[in-house]
């Protein structure tokens, strides 16, 4: 699910930073006292198997380097105000790992001056920027040219489809939909309506799972959303209008209230009651990690994956990257130790145990034999999508978090009230551009 920091939180942070005089020179002086120490505080965002894996790599690092990592589980720490409070209170962690789409929030925080630039620390650690895949380099640097974010690994989104349901509807599971037109035809063939008008099955719902992320479909349709060179918000563009208009065709055809009623009794992605696992939704867009959820909770479901369909002028075989990112908050006491651990922790040989569960992708050009997904049909598609020049990180701007809010609101206005997307997009574009210029 998309995680959003409100504008009021960002404004509050900037206000506090100004009052506290949290300038670059202040933070550097506060950092030098511990620069020779290997002890630092690290916030991580996840529990379950991922937490166990993270603790294992922490223990290995401590044993190898003689370091002391004060690891703290802080779920949603970026989005619930804890990080901002820690920064404004002068007691931030030294390192934070953001989960998936938190990269947009981290980028926004960097643009607001709430993160430490990492260039000197990366240089000291021997980091070579040229070893990173090109698709991640734009994320690492803010508009001032400094590096604020170190990617760990990334997820991509795929189209999952039920093989048995395809065959029952007379569709070829070896020929999944590649275009939006083909997706719509397949969705209609896979939808079954009861005599009382309720749904027995739905072929596809654009706005559930990864489709709920407000950037997923605009990106597939080819929208840019933000012009980096001109520093202009570009929401009211034709691909964006087409994306929302397309979603509205599903709303008009199937009624979003009926869809909500149909899905309300189902569980989330890590639940055996997810509608795809129950055979109630035949196709859905979700991350590469959903394959492991299916293995755990619905091992008998026969499914395949394909790249997300797109219109003729859209982004083919592409995805928004959901990148896990390391960053150092402003005022951190031991950023060098933090970056040393981050670089250790995102090596392929260290990430392999995690990648071999979730099928995520590494950020490095040179791959390790420790990653075991050779000839795996899901991972083959993951790599294909990750390698697409059209895959990337949208909305790399200081108003990224506000933009997500606006796009979600616009989508709801379009699918529930059938509002004109062009008018809503123009209004949001003007509002965000004004906010951007003030920042």
From TrEMBL:
<feature type="signal peptide">
    <location>
        <begin position="1"/>
        <end position="25"/>
    </location>
</feature>
<dbReference type="InterPro" id="IPR006059">
    <property type="entry name" value="SBP"/>
</dbReference>
<dbReference type="Pfam" id="PF13416">
    <property type="entry name" value="SBP_bac_8"/>
</dbReference>
<keyword id="KW-0732">Signal</keyword>
<protein>
    <submittedName>
        <fullName>ABC transporter substrate-binding protein</fullName>
    </submittedName>
</protein>
<dbReference type="InterPro" id="IPR050490">
    <property type="entry name" value="Bact_solute-bd_prot1"/>
</dbReference>
């Amino acid at each position: 699910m998309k995680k959003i920091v409100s504008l009021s939180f960002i404004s509050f942070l900037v206000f506090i930073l100004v009052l506290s005089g949290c300038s670059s020179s202040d933070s550097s002086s506060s950092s030098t006292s511990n620069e020779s120490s290997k002890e630092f505080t690290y916030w991580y965002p996840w529990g379950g198997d991922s937490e166990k894996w993270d603790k294992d790599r922490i223990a290995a690092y401590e044993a190898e380097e003689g370091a002391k990592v004060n690891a703290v589980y802080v779920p949603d720490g970026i989005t619930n105000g804890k990080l901002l409070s820690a920064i404004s209170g002068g007691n931030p962690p030294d390192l934070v790992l953001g989960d998936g789409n938190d990269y947009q929030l981290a980028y926004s925080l960097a643009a607001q001056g709430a993160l430490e630039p990492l260039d000197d620390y990366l240089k000291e650690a021997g980091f070579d920027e040229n070893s990173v895949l090109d698709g991640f380099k734009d994320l690492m640097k803010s508009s001032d040219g400094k590096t604020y974010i170190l990617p760990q690994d990334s997820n991509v989104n795929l189209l999952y489809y039920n093989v048995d349901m395809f065959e029952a509807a007379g569709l070829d599971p070896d020929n999944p939909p590649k275009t939006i037109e083909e997706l719509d035809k397949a969705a209609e063939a896979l939808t079954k309506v009861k005599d009382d008008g309720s749904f027995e099955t739905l072929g596809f719902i654009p706005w559930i799972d990864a489709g709920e992320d407000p950037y997923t479909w605009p990106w597939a349709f080819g929208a840019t959303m933000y012009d980096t060179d001109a520093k202009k918000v570009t929401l009211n563009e034709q691909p964006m209008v087409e994306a929302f208009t397309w979603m509205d065709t599903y709303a008009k055809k199937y009624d979003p209230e009926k869809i909500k009623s149909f899905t309300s009794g189902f569980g989330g992605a890590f639940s055996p009651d997810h509608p795809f696992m129950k055979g109630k939704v035949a196709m859905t867009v979700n991350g590469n990690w959903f394959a492991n959820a299916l293995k755990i909770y619905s091992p008998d479901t026969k499914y395949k994956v394909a790249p997300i369909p797109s219109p003729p002028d859209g982004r083919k075989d592409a995805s928004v990257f959901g990148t896990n990112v390391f960053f150092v908050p402003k005022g951190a006491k031991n950023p060098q130790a933090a970056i040393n651990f981050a670089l250790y922790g995102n090596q392929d040989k260290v990430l392999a145990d995690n990648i071999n569960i979730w099928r995520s992708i590494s950020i490095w050009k040179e791959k390790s034999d420790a990653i075991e997904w050779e000839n795996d049909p899901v991972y083959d598609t993951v790599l294909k999508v990750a390698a697409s020049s059209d895959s990337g990180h949208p909305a790399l701007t200081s108003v990224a978090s506000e933009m997500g809010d606006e796009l979600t609101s616009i989508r709801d206005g379009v699918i529930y009230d059938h509002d004109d997307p062009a008018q809503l997009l123009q209004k949001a574009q003007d509002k965000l551009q004004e906010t951007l210029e003030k920042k």
